[in-house]
Amino acid sequence: MKEEISNLQITQLAKSIREKKVSPVEITKLFLNQIKEFNPQINAFITIMEKQALEDAKKAEKKLMNETYRGPLHGIPVGLKDLVFTKDIKTTMASPIYKNFIPKKNAAIVGKLKDAGAIIIGKLNTHQFAYGPTGDRSYYGPVKNPYDLNKMSGGSSSGSAAALAANMCLGAIGTDTAGSIRIPASFCGVVGMKPTYGLVSKRGVYPLSKTLDHVGPMTKSIEDNALFLNIIAGYDPLDFNSKKLETYPDYSKNINKSIKGVVIGIPQNFFFDNVDEEITKSIENSINLLKELGAIIVEIEIPNVQNHILEQQLILRSEAYTTHKQHLENPKNAWDEEVRMRLYTGEGISADSYIKAQEERVTTYYKFKKLFEKIDILISPTAAMLPPDIEQREINHGIFKGQHIRWPILRLTSLFNFIGFPAMSLPCGLSKNNLPIGVQLIGDMFQEQKLYQIGDALFKASNISERLKQKNLFR
Known about the structure:
By secondary structure, the chain is an alpha/beta fold. It has 16 helices and 13 strands. The chain has a single domain, classed as Amidase signature (AS) enzymes, CATH 3.90.1300.10. 39% of the residues lie in helices and 15% in strands. It is globular, with a radius of gyration of 21 Å. The model has no long low-confidence stretch (mean pLDDT 96).
């Protein structure tokens, strides 16, 4: 039973819960035991909410017995990145500054998950204050990759990806400012969606960069991810950045529909330059699979990509420094030195430079809107390199020799935070050393439904889920 249930997807397990074949209490106990067994090796959880999770599971079970089924997350154990405020439960941002911080209110997204019957099982480790793509700069120690414990999990939603990959929860919430959902999803072989900017409320989520931050779902399959987004998407009048749609689609609706005739753009510049050979080959295999499924492949040029990324970095540095200025000025505060020094790179940015970058952001947004009049989605690698060793910072061989690892990890994801378009990473292959490889799909604004349709077709055609199970140390 343990092996069978822990390897199921949400969509599969939800059916058994609804039919009362398994109970929320026994599922929650099973995953709590998984955490006790695996977390000491992975370090994905900062806080395990055992008492509250069991209480919530009993309530979920009682409602089920009274024929009150809340939907497909009813009784499903999920984890939250430890930037998401939880009432009366420690929320640390993986920093010693907040090691004893207990919020008085839940984040908006927590309310949505609880209303849907989800069991919040714990708070997940993160790169300190979510400011880094490596996942090895937390006050609570590095998160390890479930495919090789010496390798990075990716960041900053490191614990979210690793907990899923190691079967310690069935769904997780991450945040993404420059790639922090998609990078760990790629490194750990799971699915991560950065939704359209404003689609999911950020209220009650500790900010890094207020105009670049996104909140999104991480899961083991595309179907689960779409189901999760159905629950957490929606307008929040108390979140200034929240976008109100006339109707919110069922993001699962077009899954399993043919993708014959969809138009997929292949960037001919930047996105496939200086990419690890194994990653390039895996993405090419994905493109060939999409062709076999009936997709139309077109080559496109995207001008000035590197300039746009530099503008994104300027906004990020400026806003991150502003967010943390008061903490940096307090001499009593303890910091990870790498995070502290990176925050100080935003100290001297002028208002003029910041405003110009924000103006260019609007121009770039409309350029991409025009591009998507010709195509349905863009495709690229998620990261340009395979997961490096924990604590590695400089690359000493190959095409990245002499570079700091941050650039090849982040360079392919951050543009889509700059313009706010939805982007998703899904696993598409394994390296010769059995490390996961992710492919990134990017869509037009509010076109998550299309990303899920195309992504699911690719996910199933590649049979990647079974291949990942065979190589994962914890499944």
